[in-house]
Every structure is written in C-alpha cells, then in structure tokens.
Amino acid sequence: CQSCHVNLEMSLRHGLIGLLAREGPQTGYQLTKAFDRSVNFVWHAVHGQIYPELARLLEAGFIRQTGSGPRGAKRYEATEEGIAELRRWITEVEPSHGTRNETLLRAFFVYLVDPAQAAEFFLREADAYREHLAVLERFAEEEPTTPSERASALTVDAGIGVLKARIEWAERSATEVSGW
Questions:
Q1: CA distances from 46 to 155, 158, 169 (A)
Q2: What is the strand order of the sheet 74-78 is part of?
Q3: CB of 160 closer than 8 Å to CB of 133
C-alpha cells in the first residue's frame, strides 16, 4: 500500500538521521553496520534501502557529505535541519501502529498443516525468540550512562518484554495445536 511505503521510508529516513546524530559522521557502509547492531532490533531495513535513502536525505538537506574515502565511500553527518526534522517526527507525527508479522500470518493459517508440524513451527519460533532475547539481555547488562544509552536501554527493555511474551505465546500455541 502507498501509505505503508511512505511510512517505511519515513521511519528509515528518521532512523538514519538519528544514527548520524548519535554516532557522528559515518559512511553508508558504517551506517549499515550501525543499523545492524542497534536500530535493526526495532526497525528492520534492507541494506539496499539505505543508500537510496541517504541520497534523498542529502537532497532534502537533512544530511550533508563531509568527505569521501577509499573506493568512493562518502561520509555523511546530520544537519541542524535534519535534527530538527527528527525532533518534529518524534514529537508531532503519530507513529504507525500497523503490524506486519510473518509469524502471526503463518499462525493464522496453521490449521492447514499437520498438528505435529504446527507444533514444531511454534517451537522453532520460541527458539528463535530465545536467541534474540539472549542478545538483548547481553545489551541490558551494560550500564547506560549517557542520554542516548539510556534511550537505547528503554528499547532493549521493551524488546525483552515483547520477546518473553512471544516465547510464552509460541510455547502455549505449540501445546494447543498438538491437541488438534
């Protein structure tokens, strides 16, 4: 849907501006790595989406190129206009509360497979959630000292709560479908 696409771009746009504000000047490659180790836990982006969005941000004046490096790498930083846009987005734009969750979509149609296969599916999901939970719990062990670290800790805490609930749900669902 068109509004979903716009929402995806807008959140990616703001995520990139925020990373530049948090991390300082970065190349596109460094941003993809920073995205993977931080924001990707709450907002997934395909690396192929990042470079075109950087070009749009540059054109909009929300970031500027501060230099170039080997193999044509461009280094970017957030501008005051970009940070102002990020602040506006945080305080004035209502977040999308839509859900796109492939696991739940599969669960909706799980009645179409053998109950044992359905139970296996839910148990695999519980295991995957446990793996993600372990990563977040390692992050939670770090003591936040700066405002940006404390803000990150809020998202880690939320992620831990969500993953624990998903593990409980997946295990309960495995038990439920086993009896069908």
A1: 20, 23, 28
A2: 26-27, 74-78, 63-68
A3: yes
pLDDT tens-digit map of 90-143: 999 988 887 778 999 999 999 999 999 999 999 999 999 999 999 999 989 999
Provide the CB-side half-sphere exposure for 106 (13 A, CA).
14
pLDDT tens track for 23-81: 899 998 888 888 877 877 777 777 788 899 999 999 999 999 998 877 888 999 999 99
Return the structure tokens found at 179: 């009896």
135, two tokens = 């990563």
CA–CA dist 72, 38 (Å, integer):
25
